[in-house]
Amino acid sequence: MRKTRIIVFVLLSIGLSTAFKQQNDDEEVKRIIHETIEKLRGNTSYAEIRISIVRPKWSRDMEMKAWSKGTEYSLTVVTEPVKDRGTVFLKRDKEVWNYLPNVERTIKLPPSMMGQSWMGTDLTNDDLVQQSSLENDFDHKLLRSEMLEGRDCYVISSIPHEDATVVWGMIISWIDKKDLIQMKTEFYDEDKELVNTFTATDIKRMGGKNIATRLAILPSDKPGNKTVMQYLHLEWDKPIPDNFFTVQNMKKVKP
């Protein structure tokens, strides 16, 4: 009887120890994801960005200014090329507006347009809205460590909650352990088929932080297509009033 009690105690101890370790591992992965996202978020941010859209037979460049505040607000104005200059996109929580200066018209994007390409890039309008989705709508698991571009990275899988209204069926992220830079991200559909690959390179110190200044999006079903985003300038945590992110202000923002 005494031996039986000892065996039961040992088994319970192993079970509790395993559960405790799993809970600690889960909390650690949540911390990594949170700090990675917060690194690029700040209370506010201002960026000057060049975007290159590359196709097998042509390419074109755009430049823009972008402001954000937390996860709720963002505003982007196109500065180049001339034909698109003054085009504005406003995000307020889950809603997106677009101001077209050529026709002086502001439209709210309906749900049917959220899956469409944003400005001809390999991003969608929905990508503008889902900034906080990775942290809030997914369960995360540390798969392994792996070297990438000479950096030791966590490799983390993210599976959406059953009730989450998200596009992706799975996301796999390579996050640099030293600077918490998201070096590579693979986006999969509900059938676990690869849709897009996101890569980050050209790590520099900008705005007081080490960040990847060149980001590329490569769709898996369109060989030769890619969208490249390059940060030209970045600032964080400078005051921006809430009324900057309003429909009324879209016409007033200077490109």
Would you summarize the structure shown here?
By secondary structure, the protein is of the alpha+beta class. 19% of the residues lie in helices and 45% in strands.
Task: Tell me about this structure.
With 255 residues, this protein is an alpha+beta fold. It has a single domain (37-244), classed as Lipoprotein localisation LolA/LolB/LppX (outer membrane lipoprotein receptor (LolB), chain A), CATH 2.50.20. Helix content is 19%, strand content 45%. The protein is built from three helices and 13 strands. A 13-stranded antiparallel sheet has the order 6-5-4-3-2-1-13-12-11-10-9-8-7. A hairpin with a 5-residue loop joins β9 (170-176) and β10. The longest helix has 40 residues, at 2-41.
Layout: helices, strands, pairs:
Layout: H1 2-41, E1 44-54, E2 59-69, E3 73-80, E4 88-92, E5 95-100, E6 105-108, H2 125-129, H3 133-136, E7 138-148, E8 151-160, E9 170-176, E10 182-188, E11 194-206, E12 209-219, E13 226-236
Antiparallel strand pairs: 1-2, 1-13, 2-3, 3-4, 4-5, 5-6, 7-8, 8-9, 9-10, 10-11, 11-12, 12-13
Average pLDDT level:
85
CATH class: Mainly Beta
**Largest beta sheet: strand ordering:** 6-5-4-3-2-1-13-12-11-10-9-8-7
Continuous helix count? 3
The general outline is: globular
How many structural domains in the coordinates?
A: 1
Q: Which percent bin holds the helix content? A: 10-25%
CATH topology-level fold name: outer membrane lipoprotein receptor (LolB), chain A
> What is the ordering of alpha helices and beta strands?
HEEEEEEHHEEEEEEE
Q: Would you identify the CATH architecture?
A: Clam
Number of DSSP strand runs: 13
Rg, rounded, reads 22 Å
Q: Work out the strand percent.
A: over 45%
Determine the structural class based on helices, strands and strand pairing.
alpha+beta
